[in-house]
Amino acid sequence: MRRARRGGLRRLCKSHGEDRSTGSVQLETLEVIQSLGPLGERLLTLPRTTVSNLQSRVESLKTWQSKLQRGVLPTGSEQGGIGEGKSMDGSLAWPEEPFQGQLLQALAELDMASLTRRFPKLTNTLLANMMDVVEEFEASYVESDDDDEAEEEEVQDDDQPPSPSSIDVAQDSGLEPAEGGDGEEITTVVENAELAEDLLAEFRKEWEPIAEALDTSEQFFEDLGDMVQEQFSHDIDTLGTQNSVWKHTGWKEIKELSRKLERLPQLRKLVRDLGRGSRGRGPKRLANAEEYMSGNPEGLITSNLVIEETAGVFRSGEIMNMLPSEASLLAAGRGNGILKQLWHSKRMERSLLSYERVGWMDDEDSNVLERMEIRPSGVQGPIILCLDTSASMAGDREKVAKALVLECVRGAKQQQRKCYLIAFSGKDEVKELELSSDVDSMKGLLEFLGGGFDGGTDINEPISRSISLLRDESEEWSNADILIVTDSEIPALRKDLREEIHKEVENRLLQIHGLVVGPRRTSNLTDLCTEPLHIFNDWDVFKFDDAY
Predict the structure, then answer these.
(1) What pLDDT sits at residue 276?
(2) What distance in Å separates the CA atoms of residue 296 and residue 402, rounded to the nearest whole number?
(3) Which of 341, 405, 504, 543 is the most exposed place for a label (fewest CB within 10 A)?
(4) Residue 366: beta bridge partners?
(5) How many Å separate Cα 248 from the centre of its chain?
(6) Residue 22 sits in which domain range?
């Protein structure tokens, strides 16, 4: 027995130049390789790739790619011999056994086919990582004497196809030699099976956290296609699984907190309702119409008291909005008394054809109708979240705070608005993070969720930074609301900051909300907020173990 040599590409090129009879077939194969890009080029460099098995390996790679993108695993080569290139039953010829069977089992246990169907950009990254493992397997592959003879025969005469191996794939290290078999061959198969098992154990270890994180992200964020496309590269040299955001332990925290949020409608409603002057904004969409009805819940209605757009033509007595045809009738009436009387008659009866000039008014009593109309989608304004991370917030209060942060991320994505986190504790202990679902922001969020709360409490710095955001030249945050989350044990705000924040309330109609996650109610927080305090009382949620 010996170890396989790393001369596959050299032997392949030499044989390709000498083989004239199969030139056209090889040319077609090379064209397919080019169409596969880096994956096809990588296949050429594998230690056990030869002229005789190149075509079947390329076909197998195409099968892997196609099947995974459709969300299914390929059929294994149950009867294929080692080095044949194509199995006797027409199934996959690459990777070779015993590696292939163990690989399919590992992918099935990880449910990778389901992930590649939901995230097609993941397919090539998975295949590239598979090739890394296959290369190690083929480089360390233990060959039998029959394999040596077959390789020498191939190099000497390419017109003669290599003889298939006479052994069956051994999955169990306790196999005994079959009648007429060779003990050395069985030992070789067992060694290769153990090699494959060791390599695929590392493969599982690599992909298990990624698979779990992707599943968690899809359940919570619904659509992270752009993030997956950015994180997983098609370039083999920059394989996305190394130092990946998907390996972060913070995903376990997201999984636990997202289950808590399912039973915390109070937090979801708080985030959804934040955003002043927001209901009449955003791109238009088809939705149920609303009309004014006194005593009903507040909604969004159209009104001619707010002139924003022309909605159509209607009959009215408004001179300023009448159509040019009505104005021409009035002009003609100067020389014709009948036409003048006709125009005045139409005005008195409010039947002048007029432009309907309307706008959207929110916070008005409204009734939802069955009739559909094109309405603003209600994209809400930004949120500045000032989060107390002092030592007094540890325990269940910390979980509430982190759950709210997570809901802000999800709400910002669903409602297409911006959210900025200012986490504060003692003096000069402030961390800032714009919450979104892109890769860089997710890394910061995962770090935050995986950390603990500690330190004192200083409200001055987060309020100062909030004012700076509101006054930023980009005006991205000029219409933001501020939400302060604390256990209410905060000191009084400095006098100069009280004056500055009061100016913002007057000039920008700034709303400052407060969420109390503790039993105490201090006047310092009440004096700072412009809206009634939100009190968190759903502590029973944290008595349940959501692990499943």
Answers:
(1) 54
(2) 35
(3) 543
(4) 292
(5) 15
(6) 2-161+180-205
Q: Give per-residue pLDDT as tens, 168-195.
A: 333 343 444 444 455 666 788 889 999 9
Model confidence over 472-517: pLDDT tens digits? 888 888 888 899 999 877 888 999 999 999 999 888 878 899 999 8
Asked whether residue 506 is assigned to any structural domain, the reply reads yes
Report, as an integer, the average pLDDT of 274-299. 69
CA triplet 179, 91, 19: central angle to 5 degrees?
A: 90
Residue 266 located in a structural domain: no
For residue 61, the model assigns a pLDDT of 92
Could you tell me where the beta strands, DSSP code E, fall in 190-339?
284-292, 298-303, 309-316
End position of a domain, from candidates 331, 357, 376 = 376
Q: Exposure string (b/e) for 224-240, b if CB count within 10 Å is 16 or more? A: beebbeebbbbebeebb
Residues 6+ apart with CB under 8 A from 138: 4, 8, 46, 47, 48, 96
As beta bridge partners, residue 300 has 362
Q: How far apart are the first and last CA of the chain?
A: 49
Quick one: 454 and 523 in the same domain?
A: yes
**Is there a single domain that holds both residue 391 and residue 343?**
no
pTM over 0.85: no
62 and 115 share one domain? yes
Confidence of residue 449 (pLDDT cuts 50, 70, 90): confident
Q: 78 Cβ partners below 8 Å, 6+ apart?
A: 87, 89, 91
Contacts of 517 (CB under 8 A, 6+ apart): 393, 397, 400, 401, 485, 486, 487, 536
State pLDDT tens for residues 47-86: 998 888 888 899 999 999 999 999 999 876 543 333 333 4
Q: Cα 224 vs. chain centroid, distance in angstroms?
A: 2
DSSP state of 279: T
Of the candidates 339, 359, 376, which is a domain's last residue?
Answer: 376
Co-location of 336 and 436 in the same domain: no
Tens digits of residue pLDDT in 296-320:
776 777 777 777 778 788 898 888 8
The average pLDDT across 3-25 equals 46
Whether residues 65 and 194 fall in one domain:
yes
If asked whether residues 41 and 151 sit together in one domain, one would say yes
Identity at 363, one-letter amino acid code: D
Give the DSSP H/E element, type plus range, for residue 175: none
What is the rounded distance in angstroms from the CA atom of residue 441 to the CA atom of residue 224?
Answer: 13
User: For residues 112 and 211, is the Cβ–Cβ distance under 8 A?
Assistant: yes
> Measured between alpha carbons, how far is 199 from 141 in angstroms, rounded to an integer?
12
- At 154, is the pLDDT very low, low, confident or very high (cuts 50, 70, 90)? very low
The total number of structural domains that make up the chain: 3
Based on the domain organization, do 440 and 368 belong to the same domain?
Answer: no
What pLDDT does 417 receive? 77
User: Are β-strands 430-435 and 352-376 bridged in parallel, bridged antiparallel, or unpaired?
Assistant: unpaired
Q: Are residues 71 and 146 in the same domain?
A: yes
Would you say the C-alpha torsion 222, 223, 228, 230 has a positive or negative sign? negative
Cβ-in-10-Å burial (0-12, 13-18, 19+) of 244 comes to middle
Instruction: Please give the Cα distance from 501 to 112 (Å, whole number).
Output: 52
